[in-house]
Structures are given as structure tokens and as C-alpha cells.
Amino acid sequence: MKFRNRNILLSAQFLSEIGDWVVFSALMLQIYNITHSPILVSLLMVSQNVMIIFASGFGGIIADRYNPKMLMIVTDILRALMIILIPFVFNTIWLIYPILMLVILCSCIFNPAKMKVIRRISSDDELATINSYSFAISGVVKILGFLFGGLLIGFYGYKIPYYLDSLTYILSCIILTFISYPYTKIRAERQQQSSFYNDFKSGISELKGIPFIPRLIIIFTTGSFIIGMIVTQLVVFNSQSLSGNELTFGYLNGAIAAGMIIVSAFYSKYAKNWEPYLTIIFSAFLGIGTSLILITTLPYPYVLVVMFLLGFFQTLPNLVALTLCQKIVPETFLGRFFGVLNIFTTSFYVIGMLLGGTLATLSVTWMYRGLGFFSILVFIIAFVYRDKFLGREAGSNAKETARSFESM
Asked: Of 320, 312, 290, which is closest to residue 380 (Cα–Cα)?
């Protein structure tokens, strides 16, 4: 039954995410072709991330309060209805942004609800497998979504991608109804007595009581800051440092996605042999830092190999940390945990975007090199102080959490 539930959930993810990437590529091209304004294209990304920051806490509370399976179905329906509106407001470009903000709000409810469903339908041993499959699907649909998005726009114009995305949400919604999800209903009087603020506050207090969680959020936040500086300036690096064109830019993104797919495919087989903390800091900081220095020194054909490794190192710590969090965070607080995590990581991702854009105007090559050395420095600090970070010198509760973090 659990394998059936897992396959249903992953099938729904594939359908909805491939439509998302098709629409994302269509939106970027459409807004630029209509306005010829790079600022409005950037505003699309910034506004989405800002909405994630403000909506994640709310979404996490909703996911903890109500039936996660029903929340996924309802938000899929709402997203389908909102996406299909976009072709009808082409001539009023500013209407696209509030529609997208509502779509993001639904996603901020859907994603923590999905994490709770994964936790409920999976045993501890199965979490690594389902998370690796989920990340592999995300890598595949990223490649296919951009490819199909360009083809659909080229042959059929801008409307078809939105209709397709709306259809994939409906199909995802239908598939999700077949998941067998045992849900324990929260008593009505308890819901009435507890406000959203109190729910959020109690969730924060509970999470602070798990010794490693605040430290893990620091790792996630630092990594998001670094990735924010890398990803948003890749197009500048392709043009200025590699003298590349649209094709080489596609190859760079394809290499990153390929690394993401490969590490996801093999992760569940070897996860038990890896020490989680060292795996996270080696890949998130030493691996990414070294990759950034190499791509600024090697010629183009070899850069693709390094970009593959960058995708590998970018994905591995997320897989390890996600699986660990699903094990040590109580299920009743999972929604709020991922909501809080999104607030911090997205905030610093946006800061990384803005700082990266500023420094790249001076030299994107030296910005990447400096970021590489900074990442390696973070690794050295995290490695030297690993005992203190893991709480090995703290009390019994901290030591128990540290032991859970030292083995998957």
C-alpha cells in the first residue's frame, strides 16, 4: 500500500511540476517580449520569492491544522483555475503578477502538506528513497519543461502552455484522490481556542526545543544565500566569462539538472553509509566552493563537467537534511517547520540574488571566485567546530539528537 501511495504522489508531482516549468519559461519570454524590460522580468522572480517569505508561515500552519491530502487537492484545483486566467490578461501585464502571487500562496500550502503526507505514508527507511525519487523527478521535469515550453511557444504561441499547466494541475488533483491517507481530525474546540499566531508561536517553541533544528536552519540559510548568488548570475557568467549564447546557457543548466538527477538516483542506495553532518558540509560548502573556483579557471568544455558536479553538490545536502528533518521533527509540527525554513532560506536567497547582481556588475568571474573561497571558509569553520555544532558536549537530549544526526 505504501509503494502504491508513493507512486501516486510522485506521479502527481511529475504532472504538476512539468507544467510549472513550461509556464515559467513562457512567462519569462512573454513578459520580456511584451515589455522589453529586464526589470519586469527580474520583478517576476523577486515578487515570487517575496510572496514565499510572507506566505510560508501561514501555509505551514494550515498544513498542520487540516487534512494535508485534502489541502493538496484543493490547492491544485485553485492553481488550475488561476493559471488558466493568465491568457485572458495578456494585454494588462500587471494583472499577471497578482495572479501569480495567489498561485504562490497555494504552493506555500501545498508543499508543507506534501511533506506531511510523505512522512505519514513512509517508514524511516523509505524516506531516503521517496525523497531521492522526488528530487530526480524535479531534475527531469526542469529539463523537459524548458524544452517543451520553447517548442510549444514556437509552434502554438503563448496560450497553450498555460492551458497545459492548468490541465496538469487537474490531473494531479485527480491522481491525489487515490492516496490512502489516515488522517486524525483535530477537535473543533481546539481549533477555535488556538489562533494562527498562537499555533505559529507554539510551533517555533517546539522546534527550538529540538537541539539541532536551529543549527540546521543556519546551514540551510547559508546554503540558500550562496545558491542565490550563483544561479541568478549564471546567465551573466555565460555571456561575459564564457562568451556563450542561448545554446551554451542551456547546456549549463542541463549539466546542473543532470547532476541533480544522478545524485537523486543513487542517494537512497548509499545514504546509510554516509555520516549526515559531514556529507552536508562537504557537499554544500567544500564541493560547491571548489566548483565555483574551477568554473572560473577551466575552458568551456570542462566547465560542463564542473556544472554537473555543482548540480550534484547542490542537491545532495538538501536530500540528506530533508530526510533527517522528516525523521526528527514531530509530524504535528512538520508543516510549521517547513514554513519557518522557507521564510529563512527564501529571505537569504533573495539577499544572495541582490548582492550577486551588485557584485557581478564589477566582475562576475571574481564574484564567483570570492564566493568559492567564502564557501570553503564556511566548510573549514563547520568542520573544526563540528563537535560543538552537533551538541556532543551538551546534555542528554542534545546528544540523542546528535546521534540521530550521525546516522541515517
From this structure: 290
**Which grid cell sits at 322?**
530533508
- What digits encode the pLDDT tens for the residues 298-331? 998 899 999 999 999 999 998 888 888 888 888 8
Q: What angle do CA 190, 194, 196 make, to 5 degrees?
A: 135
Domains, the chain = 1-177 (1.20.1250.20), 199-408 (1.20.1250.20)
Contact of 6 with 121, CB cutoff 8 Å: yes
Per-residue exposure over 202-232, b if at least 16 CB sit within 10 Å of its own CB, e if not: ebeebbeebbbbebbbebbbbbbbbbbbbbb
C-alpha dist (Å) from residue 164 to 2, 79, 80, 148, 240 = 30, 12, 10, 11, 35
Distance CA 167, CA 173 (A): 10
Please state the pTM of the whole predicted model. Answer: 0.79
Tell me how crowded residue 191 is: count the other CB atoms within 10 A of its CB: 13
Is 408:273 a contact under the CB 8 Å cutoff?
A: no
- Percentage of the chain lying above the pLDDT 90 cut: 26
Mean pLDDT of 174-182: 88
Q: 308: how many CB neighbours lie within 10 A of its CB? A: 21
| Three-state secondary structure of the chain | CHHHHHHHHHHHHHHHHHHHHHHHHHHHHHHHHHHCCHHHHHHHHHHHHHHHHHHHHHHHHHHHHCCHHHHHHHHHHHHHHHHCCHHHHCCCHHHHHHHHHHHHHHHHHHHHHHHHHHHHHCCHHHHHHHHHHHHHHHHHHHHHHHHHHHHHHHHHCCHHHHHHHHHHHHHHHHHHCCCCCCCCCCCHHHHHHCCHHHHHHHHHHHHHCCCCHHHHHHHHHHHHHHHHHHHCCHHHHHHHCCCCCHHHHHHHHHHHHHHHHHHHHHHHHHHHHCCHHHHHHHHHHHHHHHHHHHHCCCCHHHHHHHHHHHHHHHHHHHHHHHHHHHHHCCHHHHHHHHHHHHHHHHHHHHHHHHHHHHHHHHHHHHHHHHHHHHHHHHHHHHHHCHHHHHCCCCCHHHHHHHHHHCCC
Q: 68 pLDDT band (50/70/90 cuts)?
A: very high
Structure-derived torsion over alpha carbons of residues 347, 348, 351, 353, reported in degrees to the nearest 10: -100
C-beta of residue 168 within 8 angstroms of C-beta of residue 15: yes
Sole residue written with cell 527564501 = 346
